[in-house]
Amino acid sequence: TEFGSTGDFGIPDIDGKSTTVMKVGHVGSNANFGYLMDHGITPNGGGKKVNQYTIVYDIHFTGGGNGWASLLNMDSQGDGDVFWRRNDGGLGQGGGGYEPDDPELKVNKGQWHRIVLAVDLAQGLYEKYIDGVYHSSQANA
């Protein structure tokens, strides 16, 4: 992991402005790679955990690697719960499906995108937004 400006890494500025970013190189299929966030949110949505939250990414995929990139892993039981699928720019759960299949709204490599995941585990779902536009809803048991 590296920190620097968009210019330092030779990637486009965001809305024409140089911005400090975190660069994550290709990690392959390393299921032990990730970032833990100490959010300090009190339990909500019923139960003893944080069940309702929103996470926002400003993300720029350069196209390195192959297959899928995990954006969010909600527990330690698997390799991820939300993936970016490089072949068509879809977002989804792998074995849980990508909704919609070959979406009109895509996360294209080589461009900045704002991805918002609105998670409601009490309802067993999350909603996906790309650049402020609703993408889809997905079940997550």
Describe the structure.
There is one protein chain. This protein is an all-beta fold and 141 residues long. The protein has a domain at 42-139. Helix content is 3%, strand content 36%. It has one helix and nine strands; from the N terminus they run βαββββββββ. The chain has one helix at residues 6-9, and strands at residues 2-5, 20-23, 52-60, 68-72, 82-85, 90-92, 112-120, 125-130, 133-139. The strands form three sheets. A four-stranded antiparallel β-sheet has the order 3-7-8-9, with no helix packed on it. The protein has a three-stranded antiparallel β-sheet with strand order 4-5-6, with no helix packed on it. The chain is globular and about 45 Å long. The model has no long low-confidence stretch (mean pLDDT 83).
List keywords for this structure.
141 residues; mainly beta; 4-stranded antiparallel beta sheet; globular
Q: Strands, helices and their partners?
A:
Layout: E1 2-5, H1 6-9, E2 20-23, E3 52-60, E4 68-72, E5 82-85, E6 90-92, E7 112-120, E8 125-130, E9 133-139
Antiparallel strand pairs: 1-2, 3-7, 4-5, 5-6, 7-8, 8-9
